[in-house]
Amino acid sequence: MRRRLRQLLPDHDVVRNNRWLAPFANSLLHPRLWHLNRHSVAGGVAVGLFCGLIPGPFQMLGAAIGALVFRVNLPLALLTTIYTNPFTIVPLYVLAFAIGRWLLGSTGDFLAPPELGEQSYSAWASALIDWMTGLGSPLALGLVLLASGLALIGYITVRGAWRAHLVHRWKQRRRGRS
What we know:
This protein is mostly helical. The chain has one domain. It has helices at 2-8, 12-17, 25-28, 38-51, 59-70, 74-80, 89-104, 121-177. It is elongated, with a radius of gyration of 21 Å.
């Protein structure tokens, strides 16, 4: 498993030779951020899954900071955030809203945002703010819980798959010796 992952991930030299990343080289070249073992890989996947639900373009920045803080595999944390894309983000946010609404006991529906139409820009902006405020609490709670749940599932799945792979290799070696 380690060999397959190593083929997909960038090398230390890419970071070391990049002039934009040079000021952060001491932090970014820490060995634990690049090491491939079941702890760092599972942690990198968990950080990436959690940060994938961060709104806007801050997903990879959040994953990089999370990988630095928890000292888990940085490239996998960044790569894992890609599970949110234009096709998956809307269903994930609707699911997060439903989870938050269910936990808070709210009865509001997930309505489409107001359209500009023929109303004035200020009236539309006011309606948009009201719409966003109505989504606020259930969506925020749902996003945190969904991200935490996905991170936990990802961590456990990677650890389990890694363990199953190791057991399989042990059995192959044992059969090869006899």
